[in-house]
């Protein structure tokens, strides 16, 4: 948790006793776990660190060794402090839902695969979540759906 911008010490992190990792695990682990197979971010970080250490031990290219050492150093911080952002970011989920609308839709492709003719005059609702940010691999997971309305048939 971070101090609010109104707080004079806004740049300093603080500990909020009402915010805990187990709360996040209970709230978001089912969403993330079912989608990604990652149920315990602390174990994932420790295992990734171990695998990178193995790679570092066998790497011969100095540039590759330096890159691996940098990643290992970042993950060592996370392993030492499970509440660190390098671990906690893997538990965050952000949800989005909005209509995609526009009268100039250009629908292409094999429309025979659809259940009918798409209606380009109506909004197409899209809903998705993204989360489980991996600060080591610089990637996140996204899952969602697009609902396509069809032209009414008489």
Give an overview of the whole structure.
- This protein is α+β, with helices and mostly antiparallel strands and 154 residues long.
- The chain has one domain.
- The chain is built from four helices and three strands, in the order H-H-H-H-E-E-E.
- Strands 1-2-3 form a three-stranded antiparallel β-sheet, covered by helices on one side.
- Strand 2 and strand 3 form a beta hairpin.
- The N and C termini lie far apart (56 Å).
Characteristics of this structure?
154 residues; 37% helix
Tell me the layout of helices and strands.
Elements (H helix, E strand, L loop, with lengths): L20 H16 L4 H18 L3 H19 L4 H4 L4 E8 L23 E11 L4 E8 L8
Antiparallel strand pairs: 1-2, 2-3
Helix pairs in contact: 2-3
- DSSP helix fraction: 25-40%
Whole-number total of structural domains: 1
> Largest beta sheet: what is the strand line-up?
1-2-3
Unreliable spans: 1-20
DSSP strand content: 15-25%
Distance between the termini: 56 Å
Q: How would you spell out the order of helices and strands?
A: HHHHEEE
Rg of Cα set = 22 Å
Structural category is alpha+beta
What's the overall average pLDDT, rounded? Answer: 80
Q: Give the overall shape.
A: elongated
* Oligomeric grouping of the chains: single chain
Question: Would you report the number of β strands?
Answer: 3
Briefly say what this structure is.
The protein has 154 residues and is of the alpha+beta class.
